[in-house]
């Protein structure tokens, strides 16, 4: 563990990413205390520029809502959607990839053609269609994101499992009479953990982007404030009130960047042999 | 890869000497009649990163490479022998740094030379050949293009001249049909041919110094013998200084002019080859030389007991390719092999790579399905069982694998690795785990080790864990597929001893698959020699090695390096 941290910390970008992510998490946790009022409530006149009023540090949007409050409350939605949809897509992708890689043959063919079916549809368009069909809500957004983002997981896992399957310790497990289920669960899956963790951190970032894009298009959940929604609302007034779109945009950028940096750091820490040579 | 292994100190625990430190034996180098050294490595120390098992990868080592002489650097894995060569080539990993010393190529100190000057030194004045010719060659480039690239990188010759030169080099290294070889991709060549291509590339710019890092370790004995001859010949012809890194004293005996023995980063003995080999003085050198298995089979003839395993007409054919446009190609890996194995007997299967010996082993335990034939274990035909029946029989025949690094699940604790089998057969996990501890003790490991992960063990210890795992199911037969090939000689000897004792104590039958005839001679009662999927000779070890009937067996024995000197060394 100490070793892990040392390798992770060697990647400066990853540490910065971690700091940003922790800040975002703290912000979302503190949101109900810092801004007890609903982020949808009108609190002042519209179009207050940022840094002009101490009470409304980031100004207000065209409806007179507090932008800082919206950002803080939106953080939890972004993180929640990112995390949950990633977990769901892992739950779909891991079994499919593991079975395809382990059994090969026709099982592999069937499962991979199924995966390719999802990959052949442009993923964002599919997400838009799914959300539109199911009515926009947090649940439908999470499911839509999960459905469009599991194929890479299945692909990655299939490859990992295929290469692990021919390793001698798996052959030894076969010889010692272990069942397929035990071999997959005990011998193979634990060894695929590192690439999955790395991929998952990147997927959270991608999911946050998709959620923001959906909200931007007006397909977000009407009951929760989200960064994408704020940008969408500020889009028409961007020439009068740049800050309405700018701050949530910067929040998305920083969070996604942070997650990607963390993903890279995890990659270095978990696959020390593949990492770029340390300085 | 090499360097990473090296500073993990794989051999540290078992390879460590028990005697108190002994002063290194450095014989004075005779100067008269010898050319001045072209490379002098002086007091070189390379520091390892913090947390490694020792502070220095190599500590105050001195080497002299003289034109026309071949220096063998011998040592077990982790002794720092590759690290010294990499320092000379400027190929050290970033995690280590040179702490002191000089590497003088004639008068320039390579360690203090700017990086862009080193480009010119590498290849043109110092060249290197690696252990694994497949990974050292670019799989997507034709052989001639790779050799031409060497000239191109140094901006020499015109494209036409490069092509001619490449062909000339391929001829010089003795490739059959050089024009065809030049037009091949690496995968179309055999291991020995690939190594010849590597040598041709290294020689392209006529370097003064050639570094060969275990260049024959991945090759068969007969190929190894040819490559050794080739290196020796080229060295004489071109008057090169050669630094030859190896772990094999047989190879040393075959080609060395001068020998340096390294242990844990220090030079423990050095001197002219004959002196070091015939009258080693340092206890570590003595131990290494004593650990070389002798090609002398035990004369004790076992009375034939009832066979536990009968193999009849075993055949394995692989079907390759076979798509829409390609015709399916059949590879006959095993062709009608029959033999029996008595209780308590050790049968060795020897042969070169591609002889089908591993396929036989894998068919026996049903990691592969035989195409036809029968494998009778008692009255059960292993070859054609399926599902639960196969599972029931399978625990009677277990396997020990070759690679101690990939044969243990890195994410499972050792105790659990050993206990997995019995648990799968329905034993109570607690009992299985306590038995795992007992098995650890049986194979000579600390039973408290059950709670550690495989990476905390050295190569030899891991191989012992592999043996404990095979024993956990109380099998009647153990198939050992190259079980000691990846180990250093001294550890190899220990593991072979262990296998011998266990076999006797538990009345096991052993099938020992190996390419190393010395090892086979040491441990096997009977030996089966395979070539191209067929058995060419089978009989008692003493008969096979003492008076081989088949020409192929004789050629295998002749190819063993250092055989002429063996008698004198003993």
UniProtKB/TrEMBL annotation, chain A:
Q: Which GO terms describe its cellular component?
A: plasma membrane
- Supply the alphabetized keyword list: Cell membrane, Membrane, Peptide transport, Protein transport, Transmembrane, Transmembrane helix, Transport
Question: Mind telling me which Gene3D superfamilies this protein's record contains?
Answer: MetI-like
Q: Name one GO biological process term.
A: transmembrane transport
What residue ranges are annotated as transmembrane? 79-103, 124-150, 196-220, 241-262
- Indicate where this protein is primarily found: membrane
- Membrane-protein topology: Multi-pass membrane protein
Q: What are the ABC transmembrane type-1 domain coordinates in residue numbering? A: 75-263
Domain of life (superkingdom)? Bacteria
Cited PROSITE patterns: ABC_TM1
**Which compartments is it annotated to reside in?**
Cell membrane
Which InterPro entries does this entry report, sorted A to Z? BP-dependent_transpt_permease (IPR050366), MetI-like (IPR000515), MetI-like_sf (IPR035906), OppC_N (IPR025966)
What family classification does the UniProt entry report for this protein? Belongs to the binding-protein-dependent transport system permease family.
**Name the record gives this protein:** Peptide/nickel transport system permease protein
Origin species, per record, is Allorhizobium borbori
């Amino acid at each position: 563990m100490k070793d892990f941290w040392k390798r992770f910390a060697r990647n400066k970008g990853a540490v910065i990413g971690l700091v940003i992510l922790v800040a975002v998490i703290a912000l979302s946790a503190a949101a109900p205390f810092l801004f007890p009022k609903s982020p949808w409530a009108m609190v002042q006149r519209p179009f207050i520029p940022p840094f002009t009023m101490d009470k409304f540090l980031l100004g207000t949007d065209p409806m007179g809502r507090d932008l800082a409050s919206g950002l803080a409350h939106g953080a939890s939605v972004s993180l929640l959607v990112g995390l949950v949809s990633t977990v769901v897509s892992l739950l779909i992708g891991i079994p499919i990839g593991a079975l395809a890689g382990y059994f090969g043959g026709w099982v592999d063919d069937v499962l991979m053609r199924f995966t390719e079916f999802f990959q052949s549809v442009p993923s964002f368009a599919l997400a838009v269609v799914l959300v539109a069909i199911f009515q926009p809500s947090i649940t439908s957004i999470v499911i839509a994101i999960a459905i469009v983002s599991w194929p890479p997981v299945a692909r990655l896992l299939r490859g990992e499992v295929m290469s692990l399957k021919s390793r001698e310790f798996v052959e030894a497990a076969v010889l010692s009479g272990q069942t397929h289920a035990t071999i997959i669960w005990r011998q193979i899956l634990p060894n695929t953990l590192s690439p999955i963790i790395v991929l998952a951190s990147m997927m959270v970032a991608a999911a946050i982007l998709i959620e923001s894009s959906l909200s931007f298009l007006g397909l977000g959940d009407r009951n929760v404030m989200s960064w994408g929604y704020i940008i969408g609302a500020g889009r028409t007034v961007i020439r009068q009130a740049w800050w309405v779109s700018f701050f949530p945009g910067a929040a998305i950028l920083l969070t996604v960047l942070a997650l990607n940096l963390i993903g890279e750091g995890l990659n270095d820490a978990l696959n020390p042999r593949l990492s770029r040579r340390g300085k | 890869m090499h360097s990473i292994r090296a500073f993990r100190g794989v051999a540290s625990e078992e390879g460590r000497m028990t005697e108190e430190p002994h002063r290194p034996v450095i014989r004075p180098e005779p100067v008269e009649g010898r050319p001045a050294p072209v490379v002098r490595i002086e007091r070189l120390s390379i520091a390892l990163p913090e947390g490694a098992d020792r502070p220095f990868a190599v500590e105050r080592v001195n080497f002299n490479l003289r034109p026309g002489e071949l220096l063998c650097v011998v040592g077990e894995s982790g002794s720092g022998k590759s690290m010294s060569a990499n320092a000379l080539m400027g190929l050290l990993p970033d995690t280590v740094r040179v702490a002191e010393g000089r590497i003088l190529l004639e008068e320039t100190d390579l360690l203090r030379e700017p990086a862009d000057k080193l480009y010119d030194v590498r290849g043109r004045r110092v060249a290197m050949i690696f252990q694994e010719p497949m990974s050292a060659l670019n799989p997507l480039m034709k052989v001639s293009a790779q050799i031409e690239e060497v000239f191109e990188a140094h901006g020499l010759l015109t494209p036409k001249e490069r092509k001619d030169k490449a062909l000339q080099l391929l001829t010089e290294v003795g490739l059959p049909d050089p024009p065809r070889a030049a037009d091949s991709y690496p995968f179309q060549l055999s291991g020995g041919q690939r190594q010849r291509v590597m040598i041709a590339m290294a020689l392209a710019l006529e370097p003064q110094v050639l570094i060969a890092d275990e260049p024959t370790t991945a090759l068969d004995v007969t190929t190894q013998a040819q490559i050794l001859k080739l290196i020796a010949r080229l060295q004489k012809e071109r008057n090169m200084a050669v630094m030859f890194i190896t772990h094999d004293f047989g190879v040393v005996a075959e080609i060395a002019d001068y020998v340096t023995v390294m242990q844990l980063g220090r030079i423990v003995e050095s001197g002219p080859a004959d002196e070091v080999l015939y009258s080693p003085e340092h206890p570590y050198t003595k131990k290494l030389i004593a650990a070389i298995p002798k090609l002398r089979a035990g004369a004790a003839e076992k009375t034939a007991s009832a066979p536990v395993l009968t193999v009849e007409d075993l055949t394995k054919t692989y079907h390759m390719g076979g798509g829409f446009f390609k015709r399916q190609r059949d590879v006959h890996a095993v062709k009608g092999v029959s033999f029996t194995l008595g209780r308590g007997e050790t049968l060795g299967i020897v042969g070169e790579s591609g002889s089908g010996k591993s396929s036989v082993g894998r068919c026996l335990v049903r990691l592969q399905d035989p195409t036809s034939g029968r494998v009778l274990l008692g009255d059960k035909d292993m070859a054609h069982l399926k599902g639960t029946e196969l599972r029931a029989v399978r625990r009677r025949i277990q396997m020990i694998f070759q690679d101690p690094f990939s044969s243990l699940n890195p994410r499972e604790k050792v105790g659990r690795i050993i206990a997995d089998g019995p648990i799968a057969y329905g034993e109570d996990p607690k009992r299985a785990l306590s038995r795992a501890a007992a098995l650890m003790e049986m194979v000579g490991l600390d039973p408290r080790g059950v709670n550690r992960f495989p990476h905390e063990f050295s190569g030899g210890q891991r191989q012992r864990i592999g043996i404990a795992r095979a024993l956990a199911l109380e099998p009647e037969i153990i198939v050992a597929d190259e079980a000691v090939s990846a180990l250093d000689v001294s550890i190899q000897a220990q593991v072979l001893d262990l296998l011998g004792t266990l076999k006797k104590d538990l009345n096991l039958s052993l099938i020992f698959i190996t390419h190393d005839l010395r090892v086979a001679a040491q441990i096997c009662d009977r030996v089966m020699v395979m070539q191209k999927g067929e058995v060419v000779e089978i009989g008692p070890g003493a008969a096979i090695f003492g008076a081989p009937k088949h020409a192929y067996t004789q050629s295998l024995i002749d190819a063993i390096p250092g055989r002429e000197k063996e008698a004198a060394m003993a």
